[in-house]
Structure formats: C-alpha cells, structure tokens
Amino acid sequence: MKVNLKPVKKILYWILFVLVIVIAAFIYFKYAFDYSKGYRAGLLQKFSEKGVVFKTYEGEMILSSVQSNANVAIASEKFLFSVADESVAKQMEQIQGKNVVVHYREKKGTLPWRGDSPYIVDSVKVADVSGGTYHP
C-alpha cells in the first residue's frame, strides 16, 4: 500500500509560508516601523561615537521641564538618542553645548549598527530661545 504524501507536503508548505510571513511582520514592526516621531528641545550635553564592531553616534540632551526666570533649568530629565546619518552627526559635533531642537523617530527595537537607543534623531537645529520658548 502506497501512502500519498502530497496533502501533507501541501500543509507543511502553507505552515512554512505563514511562519515566514509572521517572522517578516515581526521584524518589520520591531525594527523598521516608526512607533512614534516628534520633536524634543533641550541642551545638547553629550555627543560621541561609540562601538567596537559597529561605530554608532550616541547623544544625550537635558530636557528642562521647569525653568527659572534666568533661563536655568530647575527640573530636568535626560533624553538619550542615536544618530544614523553622518551629516546630522557632524552638525551635532559642532553645536554641542547649545540649546537645540531635534526631530526623532522611535523604534520598538534597536539594531547594533543603528545605535543603542530606540530614539533615532534625523535632524537638528539650534533652538531660538528668545522669550524662553523653543521654536523648531
């Protein structure tokens, strides 16, 4: 008696196809999809190139939530970010220590060649702090 394996192979191919689609969707939503994007304003405190195998640009901004009359931050938090674009990294190196406005994209996962942070900065401008407000 000969066993017909054709239906079993067909089912296995469909399972493999669905598995590949699920894995591809997971990778897309984890590493390529923009979970959020927006602007952050603050003092560019630190910017450096790090890494042993993959050199990435990492930065740190101080976001002031409460300022005094002398434009000094009283309460603040840190915003850690990565920069993938080398031209943006060169801009960051030149304006370190200044008040800046950055545009970022947040990913749900990090990749070693993209940086340590899920926040990827793709543009930067020196902030106009006249009147104590930031303007992108």
What would you say the CATH architecture of the largest domain is? Beta Barrel
Number of domains: 2
Based on CA inertia axes, which overall geometry fits?
A: elongated
**Could you tell me the radius of gyration in angstroms?**
23 Å
For the record, what CATH class of the largest domain applies? Answer: Mainly Beta
Largest sheet: 5 strands, mixed, barrel
Give the oligomer, counting copies of the same chain as homo and different chains as hetero: single chain
Question: What is CATH's topology name of the largest domain?
Answer: OB fold (Dihydrolipoamide Acetyltransferase, E2P)
Largest sheet: spatial strand order: 1-2-3-5-4
**N-to-C terminal Cα separation, in Å?**
77 Å
- What average pLDDT do the residues reach? 88
- Tally of separate helices: 2
- The secondary structure category is alpha+beta
Low-pLDDT stretches: none
Secondary-structure element series: HEEEHEE
Within CATH, the superfamily of the largest domain carries the name Nucleic acid-binding proteins
Produce the secondary structure layout:
Blueprint: H1 6-32, E1 36-50, E2 56-67, E3 73-83, H2 86-94, E4 99-106, E5 119-126
Parallel strand pairs: 3-5
Antiparallel strand pairs: 1-2, 1-4, 2-3, 4-5
Describe the structure.
It is a single chain. Helix content is 26%, strand content 40%. With 136 residues, the chain is α+β, with helices and mostly antiparallel strands. The protein is elongated, with a radius of gyration of 23 Å. The termini are far apart.
